[in-house]
Structure of BPL1 ligase:
Amino acid sequence: SLIGRLMFELPEEMGLIAVAVRQTQGKGRGGNVWLSPVGCALCTLHLSIPLHSNLGQRIPFIQHLVSLAVVEAVRSIPGYEDIELRVKWPNDIYYSDLMKLGGVLVNSTLIETTFHILIGFGFNVNNSNPTICINDLIAKFNREEGTELKPLSADCLIARTVTVLERLIEVFQEKGPNGVLPQYYKYWVHSGKQVQLRSEDGPVAWIVGIDDYGYLQVHQEGEAVESVHPDGNSFDMLRNLIVPK
């Protein structure tokens, strides 16, 4: 891709971002096709992360920081704090725990002592199909609470997401995971949730959090806490299943 070539040629201090109104060949995790209808915020962002830094040693955390940045981009606006936008491990943006309306895909390349990160993120701002969009959530909130919050635009939320992400990365580099996890847990959908591992007949476990490397931690009664890697497992929200891919 053009942005993939440019990221190695630009000065390290120069940012690089590509914004699309619509994608025709969007990609999701595991080679899945990513639907990109008009009305979505669609963006690819390049970051340079030093290998010998808090985040450079924990690259899987980047997808969590981006998901959190999307949610914060909306819920940090005065009046919009209670819009039911949340994060789902490892890389999805959800309406409550009911419907997906966005996601994040991260690719990394290590050259000498620098990670070159390409972050693709997309979330539905203003199109009620195929599921629901952020402005639907705002309209629903207005009806229920008697407020008059204005709809948001894709370009505004992309700008806010990138700004919030920059702040989250700064905090992470200074304080490590503990600097951002309290905010992440505030918005995630998994607190206290019970899941089954590997199959519908598999052992029951409880989600307890995220470890220092961004992996989901689950606890079975009588067993030690276990970390679940996102690249080897899929989280089926509808059936509360964590299954191998």
Summary: The two ends are 27 Å apart (CA to CA). The longest strand covers residues 99-111. The helical segments are 2-6, 61-75, 134-145, 154-175, 181-187. Residues 194-244 form one domain.
